[in-house]
Amino acid sequence: MQDNVAHFVKEAGIELLCEKIEEGLSVTTREDEDNRYVFVQNFCDKAVPFKLTSPDYQVLSGNYDGMIGSYETVVFTAKK
Fold first, then answer.
1. Is 42 helix (H, G, I), strand (E, B) or coil?
2. Whole-number Å distance between alpha carbons of 60 and 6
3. Residue 66: burial class (beta carbons within 10 Å; 0-12, 13-18, 19+)
4. Which pLDDT score is estimated for 8?
5. DSSP characters for 4-15?
6. Segments in 1-80 forming alpha helices (H)
7. What is d(CA 7, CA 23) in angstroms, rounded to the nearest whole number?
8. pLDDT tens per residue, the chain (80 residues)?
9. What confidence score (pLDDT) does residue 49 get?
10. Which of 4, 32, 42, 56 lies at a CB distance of 3.0 to 4.6 Å from 68, suitable for a disulfide?
11. CA–CA dist 30, 26 (Å, integer)
């Protein structure tokens, strides 16, 4: 099943932002003419690991060390 999903995602040209979204995280994307933004919100009472698949994204707002802190929001940005 996972192989089928990966195939269709690649075929459709969809950018995978991460390998896995842990329980309690909400990941939302937005774009403007020049940039992509990824908003990651943690609704858990403990820090949760989150790793973007692309090195192009930089932290725009929030504290990030490979983990998203409890009840924290981190915003990443990358040029298109």
1. strand
2. 29
3. exposed
4. 83
5. HHHHHHHHHTPP
6. 2-12
7. 24
8. 557 777 887 888 887 888 899 999 999 999 999 999 999 999 999 999 999 989 999 999 999 999 999 999 999 999 99
9. 97
10. 42
11. 13
* pTM of the predicted model as reported, rounded to 2 decimal places: 0.85
Distances (CA, A) of 73 to 33, 39, 60: 23, 7, 11
The rounded distance, in Å, linking the Cα atoms of 44 and 15 is 26
- Look up residue 16 and give its DSSP letter: P
Overall residue count recorded for the chain in this entry: 80
| Structure token pair of residue 4 | 């089928």
Is the C-alpha dihedral spanning 66, 71, 77, 80 positive or negative?
positive
Q: If you ran DSSP here, which 8-state letter would residue 66 be given?
A: S
